[in-house]
Amino acid sequence: MTDSYLSHDPENLPPVLVTGVAGFIGFHAAQRLLAQGRRVVGVDNFSPYYDVQLKRDRLAQLRPHSAFRFVELNIADKVAMEALWRTEGPFVEVIHLAAQAGVRYSLINPYEYITTNCMGHLTVMEMCRHTANFRHLVYASSSSVYGGNEKLPFSVQDDVSHPISLYAATKRSDELMSQSYSHLYNMPQTGLRFFTVYGPWGRPDMSLFIFTKAIVAGEKVPVFNHGQMKRDFTYVDDIVSGVVAALAHPPAREVNKAPHRVLNIGNTRSENLMDFIRLIEAELGRKANIEFMDMQPGDVPETFADISETTAITGFKPTTTIAQGVPRFVAWYKDYYKVS
Ligand SMILES: NC(=O)c1ccc[n+]([C@@H]2O[C@H](COP(=O)([O-])OP(=O)(O)OC[C@H]3O[C@@H](n4cnc5c(N)ncnc54)[C@H](O)[C@@H]3O)[C@@H](O)[C@H]2O)c1
Questions:
Q1: Residues with beta carbon inside 6 Å of ligand 1?
Q2: Domains of the chain: residue spans and CATH
């Protein structure tokens, strides 16, 4: 149940810290909080994993808000984080989204995953646990923790001890580290397992972006596992609704029970990848030149979220179908990249 904390005027509440604020989900989460009247402090290190200009352009949308402040830093840098807490904090609510994302890149640059996803996660937790009256750390996990599980839909009760990529292993490690910190320090935390997020201002390494870019350029569209892929594509506004709902529902501090939980945030519809591509084609008015390829190492053929616990605890319910969401992404893409 939501406590009386949120009955205050939003602008009189302490600021929410959003890590990874120049990233896809962090940017949208900050926008939503600002629209709700909350003050937001955002941090990001503009990691060069993908186009840094896109990150700067997202941030440029946030900067005009008087209730928004930005600090450029690396979350794994303890000294910088302590300075942040001193100068902008303390923060009693944290939405931790900064990460080295991407399954495929974890085969190429494994070290970055440990530095940001493990050391960075530890540093964020250390800051929170030394904060008086700390209220809630909401952090990003991933549907990739379900690995090669074949039982569908994926439930938070399922075994997740067999990650098939280092990315997934770091996200599962975050969940385990959080469990231990909640147990040791009675610190309320919620880990959110996001399922394939898409939408305007999306990530250039993700399928919708890659497909759209290739179709616009008339280039081959790589489709893995010969198109036999299903994904629980979740629109970014729904993801942000889940993040904000989770933030408002910290697990209770109880005797002998760590105040930590993990929740799925998905659309609960497993969509065929080829249907997704057909929607992009229809929106662009151009046919895709598809190149079918084998399955990539670390990838899974299907994802599908069971969100029953998320709905029961936070009231979260996704509302956006891919038929609604894909056109919104394509409209943004055409505008941002000036495609006629
Ligand atoms: N987008 C998805 O489909 C998806 C699915 C599952 C989980 N997630 C998780 O959700 C979170 C947000 O993902 P996203 O799609 O917005 O990714 P993103 O890459 O767009 O955003 C992450 C941001 O974190 C920043 N960052 C990276 N390392 C940092 C560091 N050491 N210090 C400070 N900032 C750093 C990056 O510059 C980037 O702006 C991540 O934790 C990701 O693993 C995303």
A1: 20, 22-26, 43-47, 55, 74-76, 97-101, 116, 120, 140, 142, 194, 196-197, 203
A2: 13-336 (3.40.50.720)
